From TrEMBL:
Lineage: superkingdom: Bacteria
Domain Stress-response A/B barrel: residue ranges: 42-138
Entry protein name: Stress protein
Organism ancestry: Bacteria, Pseudomonadati, Bacteroidota, Sphingobacteriia, Sphingobacteriales
One matching Pfam family: Dabb
SUPFAM superfamilies associated with the record: Dimeric alpha+beta barrel
PROSITE patterns registered for this protein in UniProt: PROKAR_LIPOPROTEIN (PS51257), S_R_A_B_BARREL (PS51502)
Length: 140
């Protein structure tokens, strides 16, 4: 049983490190760039559906939102993603425009992040670009 737990932990660390090394404090990452993935880790997933009438300039400006979020303290890693060309199936939803993923060591950091003035200011500034946002948080 110990071997199974060890392998599960190693797999989670390797996969998370490969996906979530675009930002976060260097202290939270190992020399290989993987993310510390302990019990109680929170994965904060936010999906954005942008307005269909955005100009080319507005489409170019929107990623600045994620740059602003990267400055908010609390998470150990983050990543911006777009829909993958997954085979269409009833259970697949590729209708979103962007996916923001942030990893937090605990709920305490999530609670601080959600109320941080820089987070709120960025959401206020860029909310004119989207029609829908969904947040899905999970705990490891």
């Amino acid at each position: 049983m110990e071997r199974k737990s060890f392998l599960k932990g190693v797999s989670a660390t390797v996969l998370t490190g490969a996906v979530l090394t675009a930002c976060g404090s260097p202290a939270a990452q190992s020399s290989e760039g993987s993310v510390a993935w302990g019990e109680g880790t929170i994965v904060h997933s936010v999906y954005f559906w942008l307005r269909t009438d955005l100009t080319d300039q507005e489409k170019e400006e929107f990623p600045q939102f994620f740059e602003a979020l990267k400055k908010v303290p609390g998470f150990t890693a983050c990543r911006v993603a777009t829909p993958a060309p997954t085979t269409p199936r009833e259970v697949v939803d590729n209708s979103f425009s962007y996916h923001w993923i942030a990893v937090f060591p605990s709920m305490d950091e999530v609670n601080i992040y959600e109320k941080h003035p820089d987070h709120l200011a960025a959401a206020e500034k860029f909310s004119k670009y989207w029609t829908r946002v969904e947040v899905r948080d999970s705990i490891a």
